[in-house]
Model the fold of this input.
Amino acid sequence: MADGDSTRDAASAEKLRRLSLVGVSHRSVNAALRGRFFDEEPDQAALLEALRSADWEEALAVATCERLEFVVIGRPEREPAAELLQRIARTADLSPVDLAGQSYCLTGMQALRHLFAVAASLDSLVVGEPQILGQMKQCYRASREAGLSGPLLDGALQAAFAAAKRVRSETPIGQQTSSMTLVARQVAEDLHGRFDALKLLWLGLGEMGEMLSGDFLSAVIENLLVMHASPARSEAVARRLACNFAPHETLDHHLAEADIVITDTSAGRFTLDAEQVEAALKRRRRRPMLLIDAGVPSDIEPGVAELDGAFVYDLDDLERLARSEAGGRAAAEAMAWAVVEEELERFCRAQAERSAAPSVTALRQHFEAVRREVLAQGAGDAEAATRLLINRLLHGPSEALRHTAGSDPAAGEALERSLRRLFDLKSAGEEREEET
Done:
């Protein structure tokens, strides 16, 4: 291995100890703050510029509609947590005090494990949802193109992506999430029959809502209307899905026309109340309306489920139906975590092995230098030369072992055990046992 490679490997292992992750998520912040962070599409360019101006050794911004996280390799003299929290708060025009108890800061192995878990969708609001892996890859690609990523984050994210792929292919965690969308489609089919003439209204534009709406789109529902408090976001999502959008002020009108309504605002208040839905049902002459509440907390007032013609399902309902068909989610999550831990251990072991490479290289170079010195002395025959070589090579370790044993017996014993392990040496007792 070249000296440059050895130096980089040692630096990578040392960087792992300086890895920091600070973030907020849909799960960590309260309802009042969710809209401040997650109602608008994340400005990836601004986030990357904030990281670039801070001059971290390596950096990554993970920004989706349910999480904002900064992952950095801090310089030895810097304390990243407070600085990163301030930058996160600033994106929502808040102060770090406003995020007390609603953010998280992880370092070293904890930060690394979190990255792996996020990629594998084990930290998502709906565990197993498939979008997060693609979103993380997009965030990583943006950080690389901005020149912010580096050797450690490159390796860590590639390992996290590999773990996520294994989770999806080797465990039922993704199948269970897919089965939730299939259950929703089955409920709609049982209620409405053919899909081609149905109208679908999607309120809120969250990830789970998009997954459900996308599944209905694939089932030949052609009339999808998206609606959000932010017109710009509604238009962007509608353009991406090739569907229509409408201003939020027209909700009552479009609600009466909708055969299927998917809500995913998680606004901390009810988006649809019983009075509003009752008026819509009257206008549609009690034709059945399927309402799927994907909000956390709920978007639909409980009283809506009591209305004649309204059929309300939340994520717990869909999950119960999916679990009855696909087995227990707890077992699936345990299998997924086992894969994550295995891949995490594999990555860390590879990092540790590479960190030892400089010492191996130095040892090899030292032995080669001694060999050349012995040859340069022209020590007669081969026996004399090899004896001199052995004496030279053993002099330093022998003196170090004797000195350490004399000054610190416990350290001397530990050093002796290390030498025996390194060179596969047997103790006197072990040799006697073999002879008998």
